Amino acid sequence: MKWSDWAVLALACVALNTGGARAADPLETAMQTCWSCHGVAGEPKDPTIPIIWGQQAKYIEKQLRDYRAGDRDNQIMSSMAEAVPFKELARAAELIAAKAWPQRADVAKAPAPESAATCQACHGADLMGGASPEGIAPRLAGQFAEYLDDQMGAFARDQRANQKTMSAMMKALSAEECARLAKYFAGL
Ligand code: HEC
Ligand code: HEC
User: Which of 76, 77, 99, 116 has its CA 20 to 30 A from that of 39?
Assistant: First the structure.
């Protein structure tokens, strides 16, 4: 389906649910498409799809721009990001960031590998993300281990080439260390 079809479908659903009594924000309505993968309550069913609710707004905005520009290469997300009207990118990111990060039950705690201290320099002492010397760093705490591990590998192999410092750092880590870090972050 094209984005416009999704938007029309989502609009129709909202109209049914509310009886058309309340005018919905068209951007919120169109973003129903996003939740089909990223989770209707913010928790994706597939652990290779990242949690984005409550993620850093400026980070989300940059990723959407990077997917559009092809600086971050992913077929699905490039077309998804292109479907968000350019002038609405920042507002879309803010709406997503304002939603509550999902509280996941039953996530195993894992010990902190020594290299985690390096990550805290930019991703924050609590690994919740925020301002860093390399721009806004994303929250890693509570993210899916599978997704984090995938992305670390993608940086190391230059498959994800939208942040040079991250690529350089990930090349220096073994696959085993990346897996340990990913499990640690997921359990926070
Ligand atoms: C068909 C499933 C699907 C849909 C629909 C979808 N996404 Fe995604 N999204 C993904 C996958 C898979 C990734 C990870 C891609 C990668 O490896 O770069 C992702 C990644 C992202 C990221 C990067 C998060 C991070 O931590 O780096 C953002 C932001 C995002 N999506 C926003 C959106 C928005 C906004 C929409 C709706 C306009 C949307 N997505 C719709 C599957 C989807
Ligand atoms: C010098 C600052 C800096 C340091 C140190 C750093 N990062 Fe990052 N990291 C960033 C920035 C900035 C981004 C966002 C990149 C982008 O714009 O796509 C990022 C992105 C990531 C992502 C992608 C998350 C997502 O949602 O897609 C992962 C995973 C990650 N870092 C892991 C780590 C790990 C593991 C360490 C420690 C070994 C680390 N980082 C150290 C700055 C840093």
Answer: 116
Tens digit of each residue's pLDDT (9 = 90 or more) over 115-147: 999 999 999 999 999 999 999 999 999 999 999
| Cα–Cα nearest to 7, from 80, 66, 63, 62 | 80
For residues 42 and 100, is the Cβ–Cβ distance under 8 A?
Answer: yes
- Given the CA of residue 67, which atom of ligand 1 is nearest to it? 18
Res. 3 pLDDT band, cuts 50 70 90 = low
Residues 114 and 175 in one domain: yes
Expressed in angstroms and rounded, the spacing between residue 28 Cα and the centre of ligand 1 is 16
Residues 79 and 47 in one domain: yes
**Structural domains of the chain, count:** 2
CATH code where residue 162 lies = 1.10.760.10
H/E element, 145? helix 145-156
Residue 151 Cα to ligand 2 middle (Å): 9
Q: Ligand 2 centre and the CA of 154: distance in Å?
A: 12
- Rounded to the nearest angstrom, the gap between the alpha carbon of residue 57 and the centroid of all alpha carbons in its chain is 10
Residue 134's φ and ψ, nearest 5 degrees, are -105, 20
State the residue range of the domain holding 53.
1-103
